[in-house]
Design brief:
The protein is an alpha/beta fold. It has 4 helices and 8 strands; from the N terminus they run E-E-H-E-E-H-E-H-E-H-E-E.
């Protein structure tokens, strides 16, 4: 697939691996199916790959000597892409839900937000709770600390405190991570 950059000239995407003639090392560690593993001269390795109608692919260029594999390159690229997709699919996506308090938050509002935070933690999301100080309310920092500590203690069975109360500008923040699910035997 050739891409056309703004300059108008065709640009061919760069290959992530060196193959066949592009390998510059004098000696390589050879691996692959139907191949005796070992260190061989680059010309011998290319000849072995050509004899099997396959490609010589440099898979570990930083090793001494570089590791090359005798394989069908298009099949090899397909397998690598498939592995990357699999890794990406297995990676957990972290969702952070925010809950905002004021330094003078009432008990009813506190309970209401606590219920939401409990649900967020149960579904596996992290919770970032913060007290936002507006204007002169910044003088009530201890109220913010007390409110956030009370909040984290109330949620201790659903999540664990990941970050202690920390003042950043006009916000005092904590982060709670969901507690690991208890496996039933």
């Amino acid at each position: 697939m050739a891409l056309r950059p703004p300059s108008g000239r065709l640009r061919i995407p760069e290959e992530p691996y060196k193959i066949n003639e592009r390998i510059t090392a004098k000696e390589v560690r050879l691996v692959g199916e139907n191949i005796e593993p070992g260190i061989v001269d680059i010309n011998t390795a290319r000849a072995l790959a050509k004899a099997q109608s396959l490609d010589l692919v440099e898979i570990a260029p930083t090793a001494v000597p570089p590791v090359c594999k005798v394989v069908d390159y298009s099949k090899f690229k397909y397998e690598q892409k498939k592995k990357q997709k699999e890794i990406k699919a297995k990676a957990q996506k972290v969702v952070i839900k925010e809950i905002r308090f004021g330094p003078n938050t009432d008990d009813h509002d506190f309970d209401f937000k606590l219920k939401h935070a409990t649900n967020f933690l149960k579904e596996g999301s992290k919770v970032k709770a913060y007290v936002h100080f507006v204007g002169r309310t910044i003088v009530f920092k201890e109220r913010g600390v007390n409110l956030l500590k009370k909040f984290s203690e109330a949620l201790s069975e659903y999540g664990k405190l990941e970050m202690e109360p920390k003042l950043e500008g006009k916000r005092m923040t904590i982060i709670l991570a969901p507690a690991p699910a208890k496996s039933s035997k």
